From TrEMBL:
Cellular component GO terms, alphabetical: cytosol; mitochondrion
Domain of life where this protein originates: Eukaryota
Pfam families hit by this protein: Pyr_redox_2 (PF07992), Pyr_redox_dim (PF02852)
Organism per entry: Bubo bubo
Molecular function per GO: flavin adenine dinucleotide binding; glutathione-disulfide reductase (NADPH) activity
Name recorded for this polypeptide: Thioredoxin reductase 2
Cofactor field: FAD
Length: 419
């Protein structure tokens, strides 16, 4: 069968655009992880002197060099995706597509050239775009979101962004309307924000912005209300970044004309277990779908299974249960001369019968790498007794999970004092 891809990036309000690969590759997970690593390298340099390395202080970070390294790597991934499409004989159209009828897509290039593509099956995977709080004066004109040029020193979302910006030496403030890391265990979220505060990140808690103004100095003056004190406050910043959620990129698709149903509140496309929309031959995967995790690996897995079903190679459906997520914040070992004690882990399991594990939380070095391995066990129905019978790999951080024996109900101190 013939396969084609229509790929197009609508520039952000600040004019930012990018190459093939979507949010994750270009302005999301990949640059975020690289900048997180840059912050960790800075911390390692500071710690090195306590282990015999003679490094001149203070250590300085050059944003432009990091930005260039990140951009070069992202461009290599863009090229890799193009090569893969070519190798698989997938026709690539750099066009913005919309439905003309249930089997026809109208594509427009940046220059306005039109191409019409017809297909037996159509898969929508346009993802989401960051929201702007347009009710706040100056938000659209002066604020940025995830989609911004790296040269302006303003990368990813909220706490993750604040973490690595602080880590590379920038003065960073986070304004929170309510709780941090919504959707995460709040005990763990509090430990993260406490560490970030000790690390140098400032927090304005229970505050919300009301307007952004540009000063003659080109700095941005933000006015906000403090709900606890009932006061109005102001301060000036070099950059203001909004991290208030994402919206599905559906507006330009003309879904109504072909009968594809969306959730009236979220705007996301309603799909069944096979990823089919209300129009049987039109499918949707990824962030654009209602009720699915907004995670790149989830969308990739769903897309692979959908392709196999469409080509008659399999009937397997995507299993969306127990999908795990990592949050990146420069949080590493407590070393000599550094007072950082927020590393923490806990297992949540049933108290009765086999004590099946329901969840696992880990704050510490390489948390994503650690959880990835345990995710398989939880997916397979691992129990607490099985975890306790697992022999840890020593010396590692992950082995501490196999030693967890103090319950929260006991009230005992869970601090680890030996290896």
């Amino acid at each position: 069968r013939k396969v084609a891809v229509l790929d197009y990036v609508e520039p952000s309000p600040q004019g930012t655009k990018w190459g093939l690969g979507g949010t994750c590759v270009n302005v999301g997970c990949i640059p975020k992880k690289l900048m997180h690593q840059a912050a960790l390298l800075g911390s390692a340099l500071k710690d090195a002197q306590h282990y015999g390395w003679n490094i001149a202080q203070p250590v300085h970070h050059t944003w432009s060099l990091m930005a260039q390294a990140v951009q070069n790597y992202v461009k290599s991934l863009n090229w890799g995706h193009r090569v893969q499409l070519q190798d698989k004989k997938v026709k690539y159209f750099n066009m913005k597509g919309s439905f003309s009828d249930p089997y026809t897509i109208r594509g427009l290039t940046k220059a306005g050239k039109e191409t019409v593509v017809t297909a037996e099956n159509i898969v929508i995977a346009t993802g989401g775009r960051p929201k702007y709080p347009t009710h706040i004066a100056g938000a659209l004109e002066y604020g940025i979101t995830i989609y911004i040029s790296l040269t302006e020193a303003s990368p990813d979302v909220s706490l993750e962004c604040a973490g690595f910006l602080t880590g590379i030496g920038l003065d960073t403030t986070v304004m929170m309307r309510s709780i941090p890391l919504r959707g995460f265990d709040q005990q763990m979220a509090s430990l993260v924000t406490e560490h970030m505060e000790s690390y140098g990140t400032k927090f304005l808690k229970r505050c919300f912005p009301t307007k952004v103004e540009k000063l003659e100095s080109n700095r941005l003056q933000v006015t906000w209300k403090n709900t606890d004190l009932g006061t109005e406050e102001t301060d000036s910043f070099d950059t203001v970044m909004w991290a208030v959620g994402r919206a599905p990129d559906t507006e330009a698709l003309n879904l109504e004309a072909v009968g594809v149903k969306t959730n009236s509140e979220t705007g996301k496309i309603v799909v069944d277990a096979s990823e089919a929309t209300s129009v049987p031959h039109i499918y949707a995967i990824g962030d654009i779908t209602e009720g699915r995790p907004e995670l790149t690996p989830t969308a990739i897995a769903a897309g692979k299974l959908l392709a196999q079903r469409l080509f008659g190679q399999s009937s397997e459906l995507m299993d969306y249960d127990n999908v795990y997520h990592a949050y990146y914040k420069p949080l590493e070992f407590t070393v000599a001369e550094r007072d950082a004690t927020q590393c923490y882990m806990k297992v949540v399991c049933l108290r009765e019968r086999e004590q099946r594990i329901l969840g696992l939380h880990f704050i510490g070095p390489n948390a994503g790498e650690v959880i990835q391995g345990f995710a398989l066990g939880i997916k397979c129905g691992a129990t607490y007794p099985q975890l306790m019978k697992t022999i840890g790999i020593h010396p590692t951080c992950a082995e501490e999970i196999t030693k967890l024996h103090i319950t929260k109900r006991s009230g005992l101190d869970a601090t680890v004092t030996g290896c």
